[in-house]
Each structure stands twice: as structure tokens, then as C-alpha cells.
Amino acid sequence: MIRNSRYNMKIALLQISPCKTAEENREKGIRYCRKARESGADIALFPEMWSNGYNIYGRPVREWKREAVSVDSDFVTGFGCLAKELNMAIGITLLEKYGDAPRNSLVLFDRFGERKFVYAKVHTCDFGVERNLTPGEDFYVTVLNTERGEVKVGAMICYDREFPESARILMLKGAELILVPNACPMEINRLSQLRARAYENMTAIATCNYPETVPDCNGGSSVFDGVAYLPALEGSRDTCILQADGQEGIYIAELDVEQLRNYRKNEVHGNAYRHPKKYGILVDTKIDKPFIRNDYRE
């Protein structure tokens, strides 16, 4: 599914089903990265925790913890070498070996094979089995050099989407594009969250999910470009430039980075008219707040 337009940076969402082992996932991931590059992709993104296919539910914790791999393992560094070979950035995801409690992570390589950052999911799903993971500590933004030019890229993972602060911090750090690996049903409300995060931050957001053949997933990978208004149009436009169906495949969107940058110079969202001095309650831990659950960690 390729949407024709004048956009100039191609983002490939690898909406593919996992195999039984990390080695099989590595081989399949390599094949699909090659296919994405053949289609002209500048960036290829995997769904959440590709190294083991997010296969952590309904299994003994000690069993899946053994499947964690290091960011310096052959599984990960191999995609760095592939990125250099293909001249294409790759966002590879993994259950990352990290002390006694693994992390849910994304490693971003640029087209030269350089590791730009390792992002670990900050908002782990602590109401479920992810309570056994180590949450990340920060959000990162890097300047990613692509064949078509530079773009400032950040990342968040699945449940991070539920918190406006995730995308807001990435925007404040300069992100123009946010990569979002995912592993859950992408229904109207979650899609609406992504649409809102893109709109309110004037930031492009690319989300890669597993296809409908994977339990509790349904495809629906998407790209929102964050540009709601154009001078030539009356009223607003649909910021969704790609919406995948449930089938396995490579879904490519073309993002006009210059259009986004020009839009950010003139529109009123993002950081244009914020009043951060009035938002103290957001980070004040001394104030009792509703809905806080303190019993989720073992």
C-alpha cells in the first residue's frame, strides 16, 4: 500500500508476523528490510519487541526473560551492518537484556550503520506482565541523516502513546518524526490518540503494529504527518497519510519534511503559545492526584 504524493521521505512500516525463534526473526527481518529498500525506503521500522515477537503473555516470566538479547548482540548489531549496506535507517526492536529485569527497547541505526540511540519503553504496562520489565528513564531525539536529507527523530513505544507527556517531551526536544513500535489492537481510540499527539505537537508520528494474524493485534499501522492546515485549502485536512489494513506486508508513507517545517513556523500548536510556568501540578509529587495506583509492581 503506497500513497502517491509529493512527499519526499519514505518511511517503511514492517507490519509482519514473528517466527518461533530470534534467529528466524532476524532472518525474516533482514528479508523485509531488503524489500523495503527496494521500494525506496529511507527508514524501516519494526513492530514492538521484534526479537521475540512480544511473546511474553501466558508464559512463565523466567522463561521469556531468558530470551532477552543485548544491544551489542549479533541480533542487534547485524541490523546496524544491514543499515549501512542498504544505505537505509533501521529501527529494530527487542526484549533487551538489562540486569535482572529486561527492557522493551528500540535501537535506531542511521544509514551509515551508526547507533543513534537506544530507547527503552518508559510507560511499561505495569498493570500486566510488563511489570517484570525495567522502565526506561528518558526520551531521546537525534538528527537522522537519510539519503533525502536530515530529520530529527524520536521514539516512544505502544503504551507511551497513552500519555501526552511522551510526545510533548519529544516535541520540546525537537522531534519532527516520532517512531512508535506497537503490539496491540489499533482501534479508533488508540488511533485518535496518535492523531491528537501529531496534531497538538505539529509532529509526524509513524506507528508499526503486528498484523491481524498475531494474537491481540490487528495491523492498522499508520502515519500522521501533523500538518492540519495548508494555505491552499479551506478548513483542515486529514493528517493521516497512511492507514494499513490488517494484512502482513510493508506499508510505505512519504513524508514531506519541508512542508512540516514550514507549517511549524506559522501555526499555533506545539510550543508556540504554551504557559509552562502554570503546569507545575503535572510534576508535583506532593499533591494527591486521582486514579493513582501504587500496587502494580511486585
Outline of the structure:
The protein is an alpha/beta fold and 298 residues long. 23% of the residues lie in helices and 23% in strands.
Q: How would you describe this structure in keywords?
A:
298 residues, six-stranded mixed β-sheet
CATH class: Alpha Beta
Mean pLDDT: 94
Most strands sheet: 6 strands, mixed
Q: What is the topology, as strand order, of the major beta sheet? A: 5-4-3-2-1-12
Number of helices: 6
CATH 2nd-level architecture: 4-Layer Sandwich
Say which CATH homologous superfamily is assigned.
Carbon-nitrogen hydrolase
Structural class: alpha/beta
What is the count of β-strands?
12
Give the CA-based shape: globular
- Could you please say which CATH topology applies here? Nitrilase/N-carbamoyl-D-aminoacid amidohydrolase
| Unreliable parts | 1-7
Describe the 3D structure.
By secondary structure, this protein is α/β, with parallel strands linked by helices. It has a single domain, classed as Carbon-nitrogen hydrolase (Nitrilase/N-carbamoyl-D-aminoacid amidohydrolase, 4-Layer Sandwich). Helices cover 23% and strands 23% of the residues. It has six helices and twelve strands. A hairpin with a 6-residue loop joins strand 3 and strand 4 (103-109). Residues 1-7 have low confidence and may be disordered.
